[in-house]
Amino acid sequence: MFARWVDMDSAFSVMDEFRRRMDRMWSDLEGGGGLLEGPGGGSVRGRIEDAGSEFVIVAEVPGLGEKDVDVRLHEDVLTVRGERKADVPEGYRAHRQERLPVRFTRSFSLSSKIDAERVSAVVKDGLLTVRLPKAPESRPRQIEVKGS
Amino acid sequence: MATSSEMAKRKEDRPERLEPERLGVAPPVDIFENAEELLIVVDVPGVPQDGVGIDLEKSQLAVTARRPDRDDFEYRRAFVLPGDVDAERVSAHLKDGVLRVHLPKRESARPRQIQVRAG
Description:
- The complex is a heterodimer.
- By secondary structure, chain A is α+β, with helices and mostly antiparallel strands.
- Chain A contains one helix and eight strands; from the N terminus they run H-E-E-E-E-E-E-E-E.
- In chain A, strand 3 (69-74) and strand 4 (77-84) form a beta hairpin.
- Chain A is extended.
- By secondary structure, chain B is mostly beta strands.
- The interface between A and B is medium-sized, with 24 and 20 residues.
Protein backbone atom coordinates (compact mmCIF):
# COMPACT_ATOMS: atom_id res chain seq x y z
CA MET A 1 0.00 0.00 0.00
CA PHE A 2 2.70 2.47 0.91
CA ALA A 3 5.59 2.61 -1.51
CA ARG A 4 7.90 3.95 1.16
CA TRP A 5 7.75 4.23 4.92
CA VAL A 6 7.71 7.99 4.71
CA ASP A 7 4.48 7.85 2.70
CA MET A 8 2.58 6.59 5.73
CA ASP A 9 3.74 9.59 7.74
CA SER A 10 2.55 11.97 5.10
CA ALA A 11 -0.79 10.14 4.89
CA PHE A 12 -1.36 10.79 8.58
CA SER A 13 -0.28 14.38 8.37
CA VAL A 14 -2.77 14.88 5.57
CA MET A 15 -5.49 13.58 7.88
CA ASP A 16 -4.31 15.89 10.65
CA GLU A 17 -4.42 18.83 8.30
CA PHE A 18 -7.86 17.83 7.13
CA ARG A 19 -9.07 17.66 10.72
CA ARG A 20 -7.54 21.04 11.48
CA ARG A 21 -9.33 22.51 8.52
CA MET A 22 -12.62 20.96 9.61
CA ASP A 23 -12.15 22.40 13.11
CA ARG A 24 -11.46 25.81 11.69
CA MET A 25 -14.48 25.55 9.46
CA TRP A 26 -16.75 24.77 12.38
CA SER A 27 -15.41 27.62 14.45
CA ASP A 28 -15.86 29.93 11.48
CA LEU A 29 -19.44 28.84 11.14
CA GLU A 30 -19.84 29.43 14.84
CA GLY A 31 -18.85 33.01 14.42
CA GLY A 32 -15.11 33.10 14.50
CA GLY A 33 -13.08 35.16 16.88
CA GLY A 34 -12.16 33.81 20.27
CA LEU A 35 -14.43 31.36 21.96
CA LEU A 36 -14.48 31.09 25.71
CA GLU A 37 -16.87 28.95 27.63
CA GLY A 38 -17.97 29.94 31.08
CA PRO A 39 -18.21 27.77 34.17
CA GLY A 40 -21.78 26.83 33.31
CA GLY A 41 -20.31 25.14 30.27
CA GLY A 42 -22.52 27.15 28.02
CA SER A 43 -21.62 29.01 24.95
CA VAL A 44 -24.00 30.92 22.81
CA ARG A 45 -24.42 30.83 19.09
CA GLY A 46 -23.26 33.93 17.34
CA ARG A 47 -21.51 35.39 14.38
CA ILE A 48 -19.18 38.27 13.77
CA GLU A 49 -19.12 40.33 10.60
CA ASP A 50 -16.61 42.86 9.43
CA ALA A 51 -18.74 45.54 7.82
CA GLY A 52 -15.82 47.74 6.82
CA SER A 53 -16.36 50.71 9.10
CA GLU A 54 -17.57 48.57 12.00
CA PHE A 55 -17.76 45.07 13.35
CA VAL A 56 -21.21 43.64 13.98
CA ILE A 57 -21.64 40.80 16.43
CA VAL A 58 -24.94 38.96 16.62
CA ALA A 59 -25.55 36.45 19.41
CA GLU A 60 -28.63 34.31 19.97
CA VAL A 61 -30.07 34.83 23.43
CA PRO A 62 -33.68 33.61 23.31
CA GLY A 63 -35.69 34.51 26.39
CA LEU A 64 -33.20 37.11 27.52
CA GLY A 65 -33.86 40.81 27.78
CA GLU A 66 -31.49 43.71 28.14
CA LYS A 67 -31.09 43.14 31.88
CA ASP A 68 -30.01 39.55 31.40
CA VAL A 69 -26.97 40.20 29.24
CA ASP A 70 -23.64 41.75 30.16
CA VAL A 71 -21.45 43.18 27.40
CA ARG A 72 -17.91 44.30 28.01
CA LEU A 73 -15.13 45.61 25.83
CA HIS A 74 -11.54 45.47 26.97
CA GLU A 75 -8.58 46.05 24.70
CA ASP A 76 -10.28 44.90 21.52
CA VAL A 77 -11.81 41.81 23.07
CA LEU A 78 -15.57 41.86 23.36
CA THR A 79 -17.09 39.59 26.01
CA VAL A 80 -20.76 38.74 26.23
CA ARG A 81 -22.08 37.15 29.41
CA GLY A 82 -25.51 36.07 30.38
CA GLU A 83 -27.64 33.51 32.07
CA ARG A 84 -30.83 31.87 31.02
CA LYS A 85 -32.53 30.35 34.00
CA ALA A 86 -34.79 27.35 33.77
CA ASP A 87 -38.35 28.45 33.16
CA VAL A 88 -40.40 25.37 33.95
CA PRO A 89 -43.93 26.66 34.53
CA GLU A 90 -45.38 25.79 37.88
CA GLY A 91 -47.89 23.02 38.04
CA TYR A 92 -46.91 21.42 34.75
CA ARG A 93 -45.10 18.19 34.18
CA ALA A 94 -42.45 18.03 31.50
CA HIS A 95 -42.65 15.61 28.59
CA ARG A 96 -39.56 16.98 26.91
CA GLN A 97 -36.95 19.57 27.82
CA GLU A 98 -34.41 20.63 25.24
CA ARG A 99 -34.16 24.29 26.24
CA LEU A 100 -31.62 23.95 28.96
CA PRO A 101 -30.71 26.64 31.46
CA VAL A 102 -27.33 27.98 30.55
CA ARG A 103 -24.80 30.42 31.87
CA PHE A 104 -22.64 31.54 29.01
CA THR A 105 -19.61 33.59 28.27
CA ARG A 106 -18.45 34.24 24.78
CA SER A 107 -15.52 36.36 23.67
CA PHE A 108 -14.67 37.78 20.29
CA SER A 109 -11.23 39.11 19.58
CA LEU A 110 -11.35 41.95 17.15
CA SER A 111 -8.65 42.45 14.62
CA SER A 112 -8.83 46.25 14.53
CA LYS A 113 -8.83 49.06 17.03
CA ILE A 114 -12.30 49.96 18.20
CA ASP A 115 -13.81 53.36 18.90
CA ALA A 116 -15.04 52.37 22.36
CA GLU A 117 -17.15 55.47 22.83
CA ARG A 118 -19.41 54.56 19.95
CA VAL A 119 -20.06 50.91 20.69
CA SER A 120 -23.75 50.03 20.96
CA ALA A 121 -25.58 46.91 22.06
CA VAL A 122 -29.26 46.09 21.55
CA VAL A 123 -31.31 43.05 22.57
CA LYS A 124 -34.42 42.43 20.51
CA ASP A 125 -36.43 39.28 19.78
CA GLY A 126 -33.83 37.19 21.56
CA LEU A 127 -30.95 38.52 19.48
CA LEU A 128 -28.11 40.58 20.89
CA THR A 129 -26.58 42.88 18.28
CA VAL A 130 -23.37 44.69 19.18
CA ARG A 131 -21.99 47.28 16.79
CA LEU A 132 -18.35 48.21 17.19
CA PRO A 133 -17.26 51.10 15.00
CA LYS A 134 -13.61 50.89 14.15
CA ALA A 135 -11.26 53.63 15.26
CA PRO A 136 -10.72 56.11 12.42
CA GLU A 137 -7.18 54.93 11.69
CA SER A 138 -8.42 51.34 11.39
CA ARG A 139 -11.17 51.95 8.89
CA PRO A 140 -10.50 50.81 5.37
CA ARG A 141 -9.60 53.75 3.21
CA GLN A 142 -10.05 54.01 -0.45
CA ILE A 143 -6.85 55.13 -2.11
CA GLU A 144 -7.48 57.31 -5.09
CA VAL A 145 -5.81 56.03 -8.19
CA LYS A 146 -4.53 58.86 -10.30
CA GLY A 147 -3.34 58.80 -13.86
CA SER A 148 0.16 60.04 -14.30
CA MET B 1 -35.41 0.80 -17.97
CA ALA B 2 -36.41 4.34 -18.76
CA THR B 3 -36.93 5.13 -22.38
CA SER B 4 -35.83 8.50 -23.69
CA SER B 5 -39.46 9.69 -23.89
CA GLU B 6 -40.02 8.89 -20.20
CA MET B 7 -36.96 10.83 -19.23
CA ALA B 8 -38.13 13.84 -21.19
CA LYS B 9 -41.53 13.69 -19.50
CA ARG B 10 -39.97 13.60 -16.05
CA LYS B 11 -38.10 16.81 -16.76
CA GLU B 12 -41.25 18.58 -17.86
CA ASP B 13 -43.12 17.47 -14.76
CA ARG B 14 -40.69 19.05 -12.34
CA PRO B 15 -41.37 22.73 -11.78
CA GLU B 16 -38.44 25.13 -11.84
CA ARG B 17 -37.52 26.42 -8.45
CA LEU B 18 -37.19 30.16 -8.62
CA GLU B 19 -36.30 30.54 -5.00
CA PRO B 20 -33.79 28.16 -3.45
CA GLU B 21 -35.49 26.12 -0.80
CA ARG B 22 -34.59 27.12 2.70
CA LEU B 23 -32.88 24.68 4.97
CA GLY B 24 -35.06 23.61 7.85
CA VAL B 25 -33.45 23.88 11.25
CA ALA B 26 -35.11 22.24 14.25
CA PRO B 27 -35.18 24.63 17.21
CA PRO B 28 -35.02 23.30 20.78
CA VAL B 29 -38.42 22.81 22.42
CA ASP B 30 -39.90 22.10 25.81
CA ILE B 31 -43.21 20.29 26.07
CA PHE B 32 -45.22 20.66 29.26
CA GLU B 33 -48.62 19.44 30.33
CA ASN B 34 -51.09 20.13 33.11
CA ALA B 35 -54.74 19.31 33.64
CA GLU B 36 -55.91 22.12 31.36
CA GLU B 37 -53.51 22.23 28.48
CA LEU B 38 -50.39 21.22 26.65
CA LEU B 39 -47.76 23.93 26.49
CA ILE B 40 -45.05 23.90 23.84
CA VAL B 41 -42.17 26.35 24.21
CA VAL B 42 -39.83 26.93 21.25
CA ASP B 43 -36.60 28.92 21.04
CA VAL B 44 -36.72 31.02 17.87
CA PRO B 45 -34.20 33.83 18.38
CA GLY B 46 -34.29 36.63 15.83
CA VAL B 47 -37.88 35.96 14.78
CA PRO B 48 -40.24 38.95 14.88
CA GLN B 49 -43.97 38.85 15.50
CA ASP B 50 -44.86 38.37 11.85
CA GLY B 51 -42.22 35.71 11.23
CA VAL B 52 -44.08 32.78 12.79
CA GLY B 53 -46.43 30.37 11.02
CA ILE B 54 -48.44 27.86 13.02
CA ASP B 55 -50.45 25.22 11.21
CA LEU B 56 -52.75 22.84 12.96
CA GLU B 57 -54.15 20.10 10.78
CA LYS B 58 -55.97 17.19 12.31
CA SER B 59 -53.62 16.15 15.05
CA GLN B 60 -50.41 17.61 13.66
CA LEU B 61 -49.03 20.95 14.75
CA ALA B 62 -46.38 22.49 12.51
CA VAL B 63 -44.38 25.55 13.49
CA THR B 64 -42.23 27.48 11.02
CA ALA B 65 -40.42 30.69 11.82
CA ARG B 66 -38.23 32.98 9.75
CA ARG B 67 -35.63 35.54 10.78
CA PRO B 68 -35.08 38.67 8.72
CA ASP B 69 -31.32 38.45 9.29
CA ARG B 70 -30.99 34.98 7.78
CA ASP B 71 -32.53 33.93 4.50
CA ASP B 72 -30.76 30.60 4.22
CA PHE B 73 -32.80 28.72 6.78
CA GLU B 74 -36.03 28.69 8.72
CA TYR B 75 -36.94 27.10 12.01
CA ARG B 76 -39.20 24.10 11.56
CA ARG B 77 -40.64 21.69 14.06
CA ALA B 78 -43.75 19.50 13.94
CA PHE B 79 -45.64 17.69 16.65
CA VAL B 80 -48.22 14.94 16.68
CA LEU B 81 -50.76 15.94 19.29
CA PRO B 82 -52.87 13.72 21.49
CA GLY B 83 -56.53 13.52 20.57
CA ASP B 84 -57.89 15.68 23.35
CA VAL B 85 -56.62 19.05 22.11
CA ASP B 86 -59.27 21.67 21.43
CA ALA B 87 -58.11 23.15 18.13
CA GLU B 88 -60.47 26.13 18.38
CA ARG B 89 -58.77 27.46 21.47
CA VAL B 90 -55.10 27.10 20.53
CA SER B 91 -53.16 30.31 21.16
CA ALA B 92 -49.55 31.42 20.76
CA HIS B 93 -47.37 34.18 22.15
CA LEU B 94 -43.95 35.33 21.05
CA LYS B 95 -41.61 37.28 23.30
CA ASP B 96 -37.84 37.78 23.19
CA GLY B 97 -37.44 35.07 20.58
CA VAL B 98 -39.37 32.47 22.60
CA LEU B 99 -42.64 31.12 21.22
CA ARG B 100 -45.21 29.64 23.59
CA VAL B 101 -48.07 27.63 22.11
CA HIS B 102 -50.98 26.84 24.39
CA LEU B 103 -53.06 23.83 23.40
CA PRO B 104 -56.06 23.59 25.73
CA LYS B 105 -57.61 20.23 26.24
CA ARG B 106 -61.20 19.59 25.30
CA GLU B 107 -63.59 20.07 28.18
CA SER B 108 -64.58 16.45 28.29
CA ALA B 109 -60.95 15.37 28.45
CA ARG B 110 -60.15 17.36 31.54
CA PRO B 111 -60.15 15.41 34.74
CA ARG B 112 -63.18 16.42 36.70
CA GLN B 113 -63.84 15.98 40.31
CA ILE B 114 -67.23 14.39 40.77
CA GLN B 115 -69.03 15.76 43.74
CA VAL B 116 -70.54 13.11 45.92
CA ARG B 117 -73.92 14.15 47.12
CA ALA B 118 -75.84 12.70 50.00
CA GLY B 119 -79.04 10.77 49.59
